[in-house]
Amino acid sequence: MSIIISTSRLKVYEGFYSLCEYGGMSTDWADELWSDMLLNEEVYEEFVYYLSNHTFRDEVKIRGYSMSDLYVWMMDKYNLIREIGKNPVSCNKETMVLNAFKTMILMKKDPDTYVKRIESGRGNDIKFDI
Length: 130
Prior knowledge:
Elements: H1 8-22, H2 27-38, H3 41-53, H4 67-78, H5 93-109, H6 111-120
Helix pairs in contact: 4-5, 5-6
């Protein structure tokens, strides 16, 4: 009997946790998102594409909203152009990417709530552990 081990998921796992560490995400937050992505193949594949290309393929859409849309929403939410001199870790590109993936997972579970937040320009009540 031969055992075949695929290392591709392990590489994605390592890349994911490296991004989470770089983005200042807590281990609990990262573990939850990783578990959610493993249960959602299309979001997982979107992440694999992002990890390889540092851009979104935008295959996953909820009511017309893609990962790029969520990322732009994150940029707006965190208001990158602040007059504080430096951007905090929450304005880090990878942090916003990870938050966009988290939002996509949440949006798949409750599209009405998240579409309403996006379309109303709200979102400040979404709490991210960063």
